[in-house]
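Sequence and fold:
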Amino acid sequence: MTAEDRAGLKARRMAVALLTEVLTHRRAFDDAFERLAADERFAELAPRDRAFARAISATTLRRKGQLAEIIKSFIAKPLPEKRGRLDAILLCAAAQLVFLKSPPHAVINLAVFQVRQDAQARRFSRLANAVLRRVSERGAAIALEQDAGRLNTPDWLWESWSRAYGADEAARIASQHLNEPPLDLTVKSGPEGWAKRLGGIVLPTGSVRLASKGRIEELDGFSEGEWWVQDAAASLPARLLGDVKDKCVADLCAAPGGKTAQLAHAGATVTALDISGKRLERLKQNLARLKLDAEAIAADLMSWTPDAPFDAVLLDAPCSATGTIRRNPDIPYLKSASDIAELAKRQQEMLIKALDVVRPGGVLVFCTCSLEPAEGPDQIAHLIGKRDDVRLSPIEPEEIGGRPEWLNEDGTLRTLPHYLQLSDPELSGMDGFYAARLRKEG
């Protein structure tokens, strides 16, 4: 093999390793990528090859249902259980052939080479070669006929969304997940000017949206701390606290710090709490770049007692994050219906604790980036039914960019991934978020 072939092989090996980490070892994609990038097998990979490995594995996760069906159509009988990394190799190769449009000769040869190097898979090298040749010839045509949204959505999620929003909305959500999301920025000031400077647009929410896929660190304004990356939907909950200038505000579960930055920039005295010291270090680094201040505390909310209650509290509770599948295509394969129940119980406890650190007359905003009712409206209904010292404070459309369709009847916020459709599909969509504003009586 030539040096160029070896470079192509190593990137593809990393893609297969990434996919295996997620599907077999149930490790979060970003964590797996960071770990493998430092692994001696891949540490010397050029940034371009590393990015290619990431693109292959992310595309494979995003289109896994389709790819598995295409591959299965060319295999006559079930394969034995012990077959090494054959499945991961075939899936990654099929993603390149069908969706990334990579040169078939290189894709097939390097995939077969990987199969031959795997002790448990090598006996399937001829099968892999034959299957991938058929995928190269017919895969794209088959993909056009597939119900892509449904195939790429695990049953438990499809059923949950169909119950919560109806079959048509479930289909729209799933369809939006097929598209890579654009890049949203929260800017300190002058969004129109930054949109022009960076070649983006200003959204109704005030965020600047770019189609750029380049390195974030190389964009104008990054090193000067003029903006931070934050999905348009994720930027809404902090605004629901209202005018926080000179108020004491707690951002619970604060890392990586986008909402903390919003609150600090708005003039609040912010306490940023997070259970993870490592994630809190990232928050501190982000605030330092942005030239913003907040008190950062590494602690478990459930055992933390502040010196005094806060004027306002933001609880972005740990959740299944099913509203961010566009950005995190690993989530459908890392979470399950049983996880939702466990997370909901934890959120219930955290919500009650968060309310306890709000002063009488103060405001609490509860939010999650989940599409599951158990992690949103069910939590608020339970709290209000249990406590007589709290009431909903309805959100007004003008607080969220003049979008009344993003509000539930009770004045809580609900965004879905297919909302914010623009003329350019690449600039459309947003994360799925739920948020409720509560006022503590007193």
About this structure: Residues 1-5 have pLDDT under 50 and may be disordered. The longest helix spans residues 3-23.
